[in-house]
Amino acid sequence: MKNSIIQIEQLSKSFGEVRALDNINLSVREGEIFGLIGPDGAGKTTLIRILTTLLLPDTGKATVTGRDVVRDYKEIRKLVGYMPGVFSLYEDLTIAENLKFFATIFQTTIKENYHLIKDIYQQIEPFKDRRAGQLSGGMKQKLALSCALIHKPEVLFLDEPTTGIDAVSRVELWDMLKKLKRMGLTIFVSTPYMNEASMCDRVAFIQKGEILEVDSPEGIVASYEEPIYAVEGGRFYQLIHALRALEMVKAAHLFGETIHVTTYRRIAPEELARAIKEREGMDISVREIEANIEDCFISKLHQIIH
Amino acid sequence: MGTISYILQKEFLQIRRNKMIIVMIILMPIIQLIILGNAADYEMKHINLHVIDRDLSTTSRTLVSKFRASSYFSIVNSSFDAEVADRDIRNDAADLIMEIPHGLERDLMRGEQAPISLRVNAINGVKGGLANAYTTQIIQDFNGEWLSDRYPGRAVVLPVGIAWSNWFNPGMNYATFMVPGILVLLITIVGVFLSGINIVREKEMGTIEQINVTPIKKSQFIVGKLFPFLVIALVELTLGLGIGRVIFGIHYVGNVGLIYLFSIVYLIAILGLGLLVSTITETQQQAMFIAWFILMVFILMSGLFTPIESMPRWAQIITDFNPVKYFVEVMRMVLLKGSGMSDISRHFGIMALFGLVTNTLAVWNYRKRV
Q: For chain B, where are the alpha helices, taking DSSP H only?
């Protein structure tokens, strides 16, 4: 097992009455893409801001590259790259000026670390004299990523990088992160999209300030034991309510064109179809499926709520 | 060193990109100085006078003609009815009623007192006060002349003779008086507004989040923010002094270098205040509002528009904490009176203290982390 580069022990942070982080324990290994997955308001941004030394924890301890986030914040700031959730570069400066500014305040030059950002920066370089405020969402993000990388950080923190950008840019971003990983960077990324979990080496699922599960995506899926069925046919709204009303059904959720249903005991798919036919008179098709990572998270969430 | 110079380069670049600021920097001194410098004039001409002459004697006519001859007054109406006169005041047709009682000449001849009644519309306090003062002076003149006519050869004993002489501003030119004061306002606006708003802008845009994770030092960031505005304010000062000299023809008696020196100390104090405003606010709107509030108080209590001496004691104590007051004083002392370093050393001391307090508070309050 590789060394852990981020170590979090019993970390808590409250904002007034709201407990944003509740006794968090996490360990991120060197060179992995670590995903922090959770719905809005789960505490993702708070955790990232503590790790990037922007916020002080109430209790507990966290180290990044072996340095304490409270005590050694000055050193950490030189060693991490941070891309905040909202675009935070100077909109009245051009692409080139923004990049040069961040290179300079990190006391380095664009030339020195060009190899790191080359793949990303080349895509926006033709527009380098355009002001950042006039860029599209995807281009802004490439610029923000370039600026976060220009000082050759050891750990890169990205707060919801895929929120609010189009599907193509999203795929591009994950490709870029994988390339950066190959260059030896550790990447800590948060996202509200559960389907992005499979892009990470390991993921932590966070909900209401608590970590529910930490594992590789494969591990999470493998440890999932409940029977799960895909249901199709009928009107979704009516069907989902009908399914939830059945005694054998534990949960039913809409997944694109199908409804995923978990039950308390293993049943034959026909059993479910027959029950719906009797109750609602609807013809549906049911087949047993392999759970995907989203099913796992939703089931986890359910356990917490009930 | 490379870092700070690049931070400054970036700040200047951003200011240059902001067309509005550039336009304001050029237009502000021109508009404020040329318009306000010419408009602000405490001398009152053509006070509308309503005369009630119940005596209709040679003496009373002489008195009325003195008012007619004065450029300070225009006689808009005369009547024998106090009610008509009151109506004139109510309709704003008259500012002042002078009522000469029946028997003025007779009483004066007998050597008795002859009271003249004056009623001033004091809705506009300044105007009322001035009307009162001018009237008193004309009546006093009249008294003197009357006595010397009546008793030729005898020494006229007037209670107190007042002779005016305006020192340091011989022509009593109001531009001379106002322009240095308005210049102070210009510099203060640049100092408090622009610096305060600029830092909040970084908060509002979220750029401060990105800056805060960099190893940039607090002092570098703050110097980067304040220095450009110090430079802009000194450019404003230079523009303003130029306009004062060329357009208003003000002769600067004192050492202009001393003004620059004081300006730098003053600006550090004022920029610290702007910085403090920006540390306690989250949006440009909030910063704007607080800065505006502070500036209002500073400007109105600076002694520029209302003499501090005429304020109640408690208000005078408040003005002791008003940096604008000190700068207005220094401007006038140095530029018009030719005061030197030793005369304004107290001002320097107070301003340095003010700067120390505002900047300490600001830096203490500005944290990279919560």
A: 2-17, 19-29, 37-39, 58-69, 82-90, 104-109, 125-150, 174-189, 195-205, 207-212, 218-246, 256-280, 284-300, 313-319, 323-332, 345-365
Mutate to test the interface with B, among A68, A90, A149 (most CBs of B within 10 A): A90
Contact B215 A91 (CB under 8 A): no
Q: Where are the domains of chain A?
A: 4-216, 225-290
- Interchain CB contact of A104 with B (< 8 Å): yes
The answer to whether A107 contacts chain B (CB < 8 Å) is yes
A267 Cα to chain B: minimum distance (Å): 53
Output the pLDDT for position A204: 94
The answer to whether residues B205 and B314 belong to one domain is yes
Q: Chain B contacts of A74, Cβ < 8 Å?
A: 215
Q: Is B312 on the interface with A (CB under 8 A)?
A: no
Both B146 and B203 in one domain: the answer is no
Does residue B15 surpass a pLDDT of 70?
Answer: yes
Question: DSSP letters along B78-91, please?
Answer: EES-HHHHHHHHHT
**Cβ–Cβ below 8 Å for A52 and B213:** yes
Burial of A186 (0-12, 13-18, 19+ CB in 10 A): buried
Domain A225-290 has CATH 3.40.50.10240: no
Q: What is the largest CA-CA distance in chain A?
A: 73
Are residues A56 and B209, on separate chains, in Cβ contact within 8 Å? no
CA B117, CA B82: separation in Å to the nearest integer?
Answer: 11
d(CA A150, CA A81): 8
DSSP B257-270: HHHHHHHHHHHHHH
pLDDT averaged over every residue in chain A = 89
Q: Compare CB distances from A86 to B13, B206, B368 and report the shortest one's residue.
A: B206
SS3 of residue B161 by DSSP: coil
Dmax (CA) of chain B = 93
Nearest CA in chain A to B203: A88
Architecture of domain A4-216: 3-Layer(aba) Sandwich (3.40)
Residue A218 clears pLDDT 80, i.e. is over it: yes
Cβ contact, residue pair B214, A106, below 8 Å: yes
Please give, rounded to a whole number of angstroms, the shortest distance from the CA of A241 to a CA of chain B.
44
Q: Which residues of B touch A52 (CB under 8 A)?
A: 213
Q: Give CA torsion, residues B195, B200, B201, B202, to 10 deg.
A: 110
Highest average pLDDT, of B157-161, B183-187, B353-357, comes from: B353-357
Residues A249-279 as b or e (16 or more Cβ within 10 Å = b): bbbbbeeeebbbbbbeeebebeebbebbeee
> From residue B343, how far is each of A248, B263, B339, B348 by CA, in Å?
94, 16, 6, 10
